[in-house]
C-alpha cells in the first residue's frame, strides 16, 4: 500500500521557513537557485484562457504603415516595416491591441487590455507561499473543469482517457500524470519548495495537499493515488468527446526499452500493446508488473525538450510521503540498493527499480495520442549523447569511424559540431548551466627574440566584436592582436565546478574559444571513461589540460557516472593503439586493386573517403551492414577518426581501395549503429564474427602551406630544401645524418633517391603516428633497393627514435650532419631557443642545417595564391597584415629575427654560421621564402657523451641481416 500522510499546517510552516531562508541567501550572495520562478507563472493570454478557454477568440491582422520619404514632390508612398494588431473577442466584449512587430506581442497586449477591463489584478512576480497554494488549488480546479477536456494540452488527453477507463478506475487521473505533464503546476510548486528538481514524490504530495483544499469538488483516493471529480461529467459531454475522438487503431504495438535496475541484467526491447479503449499508462503499468497507472511514476523528458521520450517506473510502495521533504529523504535512503543507476543518469532524477523508456504521450499539437518506436539503437544513441566523444560522433553520423579530434586546427578543416557547441550540448545533457566563455585580447609585439612579446589590452566576455577599436589602434602601432580564452562551468545552483584557462594564444577569438572548449571536452571524455577516479586524482589529471577542478562540487554533479557500464565510445574500442597504430595492419591486409602511385595523405591534409563498415563471419558468408558514408572528410594527424582507419588511409593513394579488419567493439556500440538489432544480436551470439571495413580514397587536399608553395615554386620548396641539404652532404662527405623533427620521414625518404656518402640515417620525432608512417615508407624503400641489387645509396642502417628534441640522447651525439627543416616554428618561441642551445652544446653535430619560414615572404605567397582566399571566411575580420603559413605555427621570424637568433647561438657554442635559403633571391626583397642557417663546428675534437638514453627505438633497419625491429 502506498501510504499518504500530510499535515497541512506543518507543511506550510516548514515551507514558509525554507522559502524565507533561501530567498534571504539568494539576495545576500547574488547566486544560488531561487525557491521560486522570477516571473509570474501566468501570462495575460494564460489568464484569459484560464477564465474563458476556447471562448476567447484572437484575430491578428497585418498593418502596413506609410512612412515619410523625405521628398514632398514624390507621390509614390514608401512602405514601412510590417506590423501586427490583434483583436480579442470575449463573450461580453472585445478589445483591440496596439501595433507590434511580432504577432504574439500583439496577442499578449490584447489579453492585457482585456484583463484591465475585467478588473483582474495582475499577479506579482514573486508569489508568497500562501498565494502559491491558492494558485495551485485554482489550477487544479481548472484542470478538472468541463472546458479543459476539449483543450489541446498534454494533460487533457489523460483526462479524456481517464473517462474511458473501466470499473473503479473510471474518471481517476493519476497524480503522477498531473505532476509530470502540467508545467504550470510545477512552476507553482517551486514557490512552495525548492527541492522539486529531483524529487518526484514531493511534487505529488503538494498536489494532494492542494486537492484537499478542494474537498467539495475533488475526490482523492489514497489507494489509487489519483484524483477524480466528485460531480460526474454530464453524459452528453462524454458522448461528444467520444464522437470527436480520432480514429485510433483498435490495437497498436509500440516498441520501447526495458532498463533493469540490476547491472547484471540485459537492457532489452519490449512491445507495448495499446488500444483505443486502454489508457497507455495502464499498459506501461502492466509491463512493469503493477496493477494500474496509479503506481507508475514518470520522469522529465529525455533528450530534446520537445521530445515525448520519458522513463516510467514503479512508485516504491513502502515510502510514505510525509509532512516534509526531510522525512521523505530519510525513508528513501533505505532504498539505495535498488536505485536504477542508468535510468537515474539519463533523467537526472532518482529512479528506483526497473524502468521503461518509451516515446508516447499527448502533445500540445493535437488531441491524438503521439507514439513512435524507441529501439535499442535509439537508447544507446541517447547514452552516447551524454558523452563528449559521443556527441561529436553523432554529429558526424559516424559512431564507429569518427573520434573527437585532439586539436582544433582551422574552421575549414573541422567537420561535425564545433567544440563550443559540443560543450554547450554536454552541459544541457547533464543539466548544468551554460558554459561561460571569457576572451582576453593581447598585443603581440614584433620584438626580437628574448623580449616579452605579449601584453594584455582588453577583456571580452561572450562577444566576438569587442576589442575592434583596440585592434585598429594596435595595428597602427605595428602590433597584432591575439586572444586567450577562459571557460567556467557552473552547476544549476551556480556553484563553480570547473575552470579552464589555457596559456596558449590564438590569432582569432573564435579559435581561442573552440580550443579551450576542446580541452575541457577531452578531459571530460577521459573522466567519464574512468569515472571511478578518486577525488584526489581529479586535480592532477586535469592539470595537464590547464583545468582547475572543484572536486566536491564536481563529484556532486557526476556522482552517478562511476556506476555506469563502460561502453568506451572513444577510440580504444577499435583496432590498433590509440597513439600508434601499427602499419602491420596493412601488411596483414594487403591493398587490393593497387593503382599507380599518386598523392598520399600527410599530416594536416584534408582527405575524403568512401567507407563501409559491416559485421561478417570469417568467410563473409553472412554480412550485416553497420555504418558507411559516400563522402567522409577528416583531417590527418589530429585524431579525427579511428586510429585503424587513419593508419590505412595514410598509406593509400587517390582512387585506391582496400579492406581491413577492425577490432570488434562492445555489443552496445554495435547496437548503437545497427538498424536491425535482431540480426546483429544473432550474429554476435554466433561467436565467430568480425568487423570489417572497406575504404576508397577519393580526394586529398594538402595543407595550405604546401598549396602555396606548390603554386609559386617549381620544384616545390620542400624539394628545394632536400636538394640544399644534399649539396652539403656531398660537400662534407658526411657518413651519418640525424633529422630532428623528422615527422613522417619525408626528408629521409627523399635522400634515398640520391647517391650520397651517407651510411647511417636517423630520425627523431615526438609523434608515434608520424614515426609509424615513416617506418612503413623507409622499410619498403630500403628493402626494395636491396632486392633490386642496384642500390642508389650506401645506407647500412636506419633508426627511428621517439622522443623530444629538447632532450639529449647520447646515442645521437657527434653526427656528421644534422638537419632541422621547418620544425622550430611549430614550437613555442622559448622552446626553439632552448633547442638551439641543446643541439649545439650536447648533440654537437659537425654541421647543423636549420630552416624556417621567412615571415616577410608571406605577403607574396598569400597574394599569389587564390586558394588562400577560400581557406576561412572568418579571415575577413583579421586585422593583421598576413597570416602564418600553417595553423600549427607558433611563430614565424623575419630575416632580422632569424639572423639574431642564429648569430647569438653560434657565438655561445663556438660555431660558425652562414645564411642562405631557397625560394626567392637573396638580394631582392623580401629575401628567401625559406631562410636557412648552416652552423659549422670550429672544434673538431671528439664529443664527450654522457651515455644517457632518453629516446625509445620505434623502428630499426640494418642491411647486414636485412631485418627490422
Automatic annotation (TrEMBL):
Pfam families membership: dsRBD2 (PF17842), DSRM_2 (PF24995), Hen1_Lam_C (PF18441), Hen1_LCD (PF21224), Methyltransf_12 (PF08242)
Domain HTH La-type RNA-binding: from-to ranges: 126-237
Molecular function (Gene Ontology), one example: RNA binding
Reaction catalysed by this enzyme: small RNA 3'-end nucleotide + S-adenosyl-L-methionine = small RNA 3'-end 2'-O-methylnucleotide + S-adenosyl-L-homocysteine + H(+)
Enzymatic class: transferase
PROSITE patterns: HTH_LA
Organism annotation: Anisodus acutangulus
UniProt keyword Metal-binding present: yes
Example GO BP: siRNA processing
Enzyme Commission code(s) on record: 2.1.1.386
InterPro entries according to UniProt: DSRM_2, Hen1, HEN1_dsRBD2, Hen1_Lam_C, La_HTH, Methyltransf_12, PPIase_dom_sf, SAM-dependent_MTases_sf
Protein name, entry field: Small RNA 2'-O-methyltransferase
PANTHER family per record: HEN1, SMALL RNA 2'-O-METHYLTRANSFERASE
Family: Belongs to the methyltransferase superfamily. HEN1 family.
Cofactor(s) essential for the protein: Mg(2+)
Isomerase keyword on record: no
Keywords: Magnesium, Metal-binding, Methyltransferase, RNA-binding, RNA-mediated gene silencing, S-adenosyl-L-methionine, Transferase
One CC-aspect GO term: nucleus
Domain of life of the source: Eukaryota
Amino acid at each position: 500500500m502506498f501510504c499518504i500522510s500530510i499535515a497541512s499546517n506543518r507543511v506550510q510552516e516548514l515551507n514558509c521557513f525554507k522559502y524565507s531562508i533561501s530567498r534571504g541567501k539568494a539576495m545576500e550572495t547574488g547566486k544560488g537557485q531561487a525557491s521560486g520562478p522570477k516571473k509570474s507563472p501566468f501570462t495575460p493570454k494564460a489568464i484569459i484562457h484560464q477564465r474563458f478557454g476556447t471562448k476567447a477568440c484572437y484575430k491578428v491582422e497585418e498593418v502596413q504603415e506609410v512612412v515619410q520619404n523625405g521628398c514632398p514632390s514624390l507621390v509614390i508612398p514608401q512602405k514601412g516595416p510590417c506590423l501586427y494588431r490583434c483583436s480579442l473577442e470575449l463573450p461580453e466584449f472585445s478589445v483591440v491591441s496596439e501595433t507590434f512587430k511580432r504577432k504574439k506581442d500583439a496577442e499578449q497586449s490584447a489579453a492585457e487590455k482585456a484583463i484591465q477591463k475585467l478588473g483582474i489584478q495582475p499577479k506579482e512576480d514573486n508569489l508568497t507561499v500562501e498565494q502559491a497554494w491558492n494558485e495551485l488549488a485554482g489550477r487544479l480546479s481548472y484542470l478538472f473543469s468541463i472546458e479543459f477536456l476539449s483543450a489541446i494540452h498534454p494533460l487533457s488527453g489523460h483526462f479524456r482517457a481517464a473517462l474511458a477507463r473501466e470499473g473503479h478506475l473510471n474518471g481517476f487521473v493519476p497524480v503522477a500524470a498531473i505532476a509530470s505533464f502540467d508545467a504550470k503546476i510545477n512552476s507553482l510548486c517551486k514557490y512552495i519548495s525548492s527541492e522539486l528538481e529531483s524529487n518526484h514524490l514531493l511534487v505529488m504530495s503538494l498536489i494532494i495537499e492542494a486537492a484537499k483544499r478542494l474537498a467539495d469538488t475533488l475526490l482523492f483516493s489514497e489507494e489509487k493515488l489519483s484524483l477524480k471529480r466528485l460531480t460526474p461529467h454530464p453524459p452528453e459531454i462524454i458522448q461528444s468527446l467520444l464522437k470527436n475522438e480520432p480514429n485510433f487503431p483498435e490495437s497498436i504495438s509500440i516498441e520501447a526499452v526495458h532498463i533493469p535496475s540490476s547491472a547484471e541484467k540485459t537492457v532489452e526491447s519490449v512491445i507495448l500493446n495499446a488500444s483505443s479503449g486502454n489508457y497507455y499508462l495502464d499498459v506501461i503499468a502492466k509491463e512493469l508488473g503493477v496493477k494500474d497507472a496509479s503506481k507508475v511514476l514518470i520522469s522529465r523528458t529525455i533528450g530534446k525538450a520537445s521530445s515525448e521520450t520519458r522513463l516510467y517506473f514503479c512508485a516504491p510502495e513502502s515510502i510514505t510521503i510525509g509532512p516534509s521533504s526531510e522525512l521523505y529523504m530519510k525513508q528513501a535512503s533505505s532504498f539505495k540498493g535498488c536505485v536504477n543507476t542508468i535510468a537515474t543518469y539519463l533523467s537526472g532524477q532518482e529512479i528506483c527499480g526497473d524502468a521503461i523508456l518509451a516515446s508516447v504521450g499527448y502533445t500540445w499539437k493535437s488531441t491524438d495520442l503521439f507514439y513512435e518506436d524507441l529501439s535499442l539503437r535509439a537508447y544507446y544513441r541517447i547514452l552516447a549523447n551524454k558523452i563528449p566523444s559521443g556527441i561529436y560522433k553523432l554529429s558526424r553520423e559516424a559512431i564507429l569511424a569518427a573520434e573527437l579530434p585532439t586539436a582544433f586546427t582551422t574552421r575549414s578543416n573541422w567537420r561535425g559540431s564545433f567544440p563550443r557547441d559540443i560543450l554547450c550540448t554536454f552541459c544541457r545533457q547533464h543539466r548544468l548551466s551554460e558554459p561561460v566563455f571569457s576572451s582576453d585580447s593581447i598585443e603581440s609585439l614584433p620584438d626580437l627574440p628574448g623580449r616579452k612579446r605579449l601584453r594584455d589590452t582588453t577583456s571580452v566576455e561572450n562577444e566576438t566584436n569587442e576589442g575592434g577599436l583596440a585592434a585598429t589602434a594596435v595595428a597602427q602601432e605595428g602590433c597584432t592582436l591575439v586572444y586567450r580564452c577562459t571557460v567556467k562551468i557552473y552547476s544549476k545552483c551556480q556553484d563553480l565546478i570547473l575552470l579552464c584557462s589555457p596559456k596558449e594564444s590564438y590569432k582569432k577569438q573564435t579559435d581561442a574559444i573552440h580550443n579551450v572548449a576542446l580541452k575541457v571536452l577531452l578531459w571530460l571524455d577521459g573522466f567519464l571513461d574512468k569515472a571511478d577516479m578518486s577525488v584526489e586524482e581529479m586535480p592532477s589529471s586535469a592539470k595537464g589540460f590547464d583545468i582547475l577542478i572543484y572536486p566536491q562540487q564536481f563529484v556532486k554533479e557526476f556522482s552517478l557516472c562511476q556506476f555506469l557500464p563502460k561502453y568506451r565510445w572513444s577510440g580504444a574500442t577499435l583496432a590498433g593503439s590509440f597513439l600508434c597504430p601499427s602499419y602491420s595492419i596493412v601488411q596483414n591486409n594487403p591493398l587490393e586493386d593497387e593503382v599507380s602511385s599518386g598523392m598520399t595523405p600527410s599530416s594536416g591534409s584534408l582527405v575524403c573517403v568512401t567507407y563501409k563498415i559491416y559485421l561478417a563471419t570469417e568467410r563473409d558468408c553472412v554480412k550485416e551492414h553497420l555504418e558507411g558514408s559516400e563522402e567522409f572528410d577528416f583531417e590527418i594527424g589530429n585524431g579525427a577518426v579511428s586510429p585503424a582507419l587513419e593508419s590505412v588511409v595514410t598509406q593509400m593513394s587517390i582512387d585506391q581501395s582496400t579492406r581491413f579488419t577492425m577490432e570488434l567493439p562492445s555489443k552496445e556500440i554495435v547496437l548503437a549503429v545497427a538498424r536491425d538489432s535482431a540480426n546483429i544480436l544473432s550474429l554476435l551470439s554466433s561467436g565467430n564474427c568480425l568487423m570489417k571495413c572497406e575504404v576508397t580514397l577519393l580526394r586529398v587536399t594538402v595543407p595550405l602551406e604546401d598549396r602555396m608553395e606548390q603554386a609559386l615554386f617549381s620544384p616545390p620548396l620542400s624539394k628545394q630544401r632536400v636538394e640544399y641539404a644534399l649539396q652539403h652532404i656531398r660537400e662534407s662527405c658526411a657518413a651519418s645524418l640525424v633529422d630532428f623533427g623528422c615527422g613522417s620521414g619525408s626528408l629521409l625518404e627523399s635522400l634515398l633517391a640520391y647517391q650520397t656518402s651517407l651510411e647511417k640515417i636517423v630520425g627523431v620525432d615526438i609523434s608515434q603516428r608520424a614515426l609509424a608512417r615513416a617506418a612503413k615508407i623507409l622499410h619498403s624503400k630500403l628493402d626494395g633497393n636491396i632486392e633490386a641489387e642496384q642500390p642508389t645509396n650506401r645506407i647500412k642502417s636506419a633508426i627511428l627514435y621517439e622522443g623530444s628534441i629538447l632532450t639529449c640522447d647520447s646515442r645521437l651525439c657527434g653526427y656528421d650532419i644534422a638537419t632541422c627543416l621547418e620544425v622550430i616554428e611549430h614550437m613555442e618561441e622559448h622552446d626553439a631557443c632552448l633547442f638551439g642551445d641543446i643541439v649545439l652544446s650536447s648533440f654537437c653535430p659537425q654541421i647543423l642545417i636549420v630552416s624556417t619560414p621567412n615571415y616577410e615572404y608571406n605577403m607574396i605567397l598569400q597574394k599569389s595564391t587564390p586558394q588562400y582566399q577560400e581557406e576561412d571566411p572568418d579571415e575577413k575580420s583579421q586585422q593583421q597584415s598576413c597570416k602564418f603559413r600553417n595553423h600549427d605555427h607558433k611563430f614565424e621570424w623575419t630575416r632580422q629575427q632569424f639572423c639574431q637568433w642564429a648569430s647569438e647561438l653560434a657565438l655561445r657554442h663556438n660555431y660558425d654560421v652562414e645564411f642562405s635559403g631557397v625560394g626567392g633571391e637573396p638580394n631582392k626583397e623580401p629575401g628567401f621564402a625559406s631562410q636557412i642557417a648552416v652552423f659549422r663546428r670550429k672544434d673538431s675534437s671528439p664529443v664527450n657523451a654522457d651515455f644517457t638514453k632518453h629516446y625509445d627505438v620505434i623502428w630499426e633497419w640494418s642491411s647486414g641481416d636485412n631485418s627490422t625491429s
